[in-house]
């Protein structure tokens, strides 16, 4: 599946999310959480972040009197998928979400309080996986919508917005693995040095006619 994770959030509060069962990217929610923390309530834009071999795309609407924190529609894809389909997906999710829920629903919902929408996220992810075709629009309007979906999208490397500590947090699994490997290597090296030293002692003892106590 081209889209491996999607979420709708009010500010930093996740209202609904869905993760593809085929994905091996277990830290997608963590990546999304860090991005949500960087979005200001007055932001209203489309943006793509490059994160390793993945892309993080989002559309955010600025806060209003009814919804002060604004709403963000975000998805994560592999870096081979381009931006056309992800942003068609996001615009469709935004339209369906706004049709389904009132401002009061969105503002008053607790974390995951609108997670019934996860079924819609799943369905739209499957639609996007098929190339985001069959919208029911006439061809001319469909082309215009595709153009508008990627219009004014900014692209940045995720490293530019994350603090050093946050970058470390994202790599924690990889770092832990490297630390475990290094520790095992040090253990083997220490054992080998001990064996080598012991063999030298034995050789020196034999050479001097002495005897190494057992």
Describe this structure in words.
The model is unreliable at 135-143, 166-185 and 208-214 (pLDDT under 50). The chain has 214 residues and is of the alpha+beta class. It is 47% helix and 20% strand. Helix 2 packs antiparallel against helix 4 and helix 2 packs across helix 5 (139-150). It has a six-stranded mixed sheet with strand order 2-1-5-4-3-6, sandwiched between helices. Strand 3 (45-51) and strand 4 (54-61) form a beta hairpin. The protein has two domains: 3-162, Beta-Lactamase (2-Layer Sandwich), CATH 3.30.450; 171-214, no CATH class.
List the keywords:
single chain, 214 residues, alpha+beta, Beta-Lactamase, six-stranded mixed beta sheet, 7 helices, 6 strands, disordered C terminus
Helix-strand blueprint:
Blueprint: E1 3-10, E2 13-19, H1 28-38, E3 45-51, E4 54-61, E5 71-78, H2 84-100, H3 103-108, H4 118-129, H5 139-150, E6 154-157, H6 164-170, H7 172-207
Parallel strand pairs: 3-6
Antiparallel strand pairs: 1-2, 1-5, 3-4, 4-5
Helix pairs in contact: 2-4, 2-5
Could you give a short description of this structure?
With 214 residues, the chain is α+β, with helices and mostly antiparallel strands. Helices cover 47% and strands 20% of the residues. It has 2 domains: 3-162, Beta-Lactamase (2-Layer Sandwich); 171-214, no CATH class.
Total count of strands: 6
* Name given to the CATH homologous superfamily of the largest domain: Longin domain
* Topology-level CATH name of the largest domain: Beta-Lactamase
CATH architecture of the largest domain: 2-Layer Sandwich
Overall domain count:
2
Would you tell me the structural class of the helices and strands? Answer: alpha+beta
Low-confidence stretches: 135-143, 166-185, 208-214
Radius of gyration: 26 Å
Question: Please, what is the average pLDDT?
Answer: 74
CATH class of the largest domain: Alpha Beta
Spatial sequence of strands, sheet with the most strands: 2-1-5-4-3-6
Number of helices: 7
Distance between the termini: 64 Å
Shape: globular
- Range of helix content: 40-55%
Largest sheet, described in full?
A: 6 strands, mixed
Order of helices and strands: EEHEEEHHHHEHH
Oligomer: single chain
């Amino acid at each position: 599946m081209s889209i491996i994770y999607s979420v709708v959030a009010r500010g930093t509060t996740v209202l609904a999310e869905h993760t593809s069962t085929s994905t091996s990217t277990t830290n997608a929610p963590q990546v999304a959480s860090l991005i949500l923390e960087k979005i200001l309530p007055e932001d209203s834009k489309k943006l793509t972040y490059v994160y390793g071999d993945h892309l993080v795309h989002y559309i955010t609407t600025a806060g209003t009197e009814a919804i002060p924190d604004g709403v963000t529609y975000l998805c994560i894809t592999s870096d081979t998928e381009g931006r056309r389909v992800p942003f068609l997906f996001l615009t469709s999710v935004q339209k369906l979400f706004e049709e389904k829920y009132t401002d009061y629903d969105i503002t008053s919902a607790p974390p995951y309080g609108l997670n019934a929408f996860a079924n819609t996220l799943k369905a739209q992810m499957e639609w996007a996986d098929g190339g985001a075709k069959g919208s029911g629009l006439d061809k001319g309007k469909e082309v215009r919508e595709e153009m508008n979906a990627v219009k004014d999208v900014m692209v940045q490397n995720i490293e530019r917005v994350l603090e050093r500590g946050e970058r470390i947090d994202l790599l924690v699994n990889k770092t832990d693995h490297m630390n475990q490997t290094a520790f095992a290597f040090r253990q083997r090296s220490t054992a080998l040095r001990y064996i080598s030293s012991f063999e030298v002692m034995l050789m020196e003892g034999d050479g001097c006619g002495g005897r190494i106590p057992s």
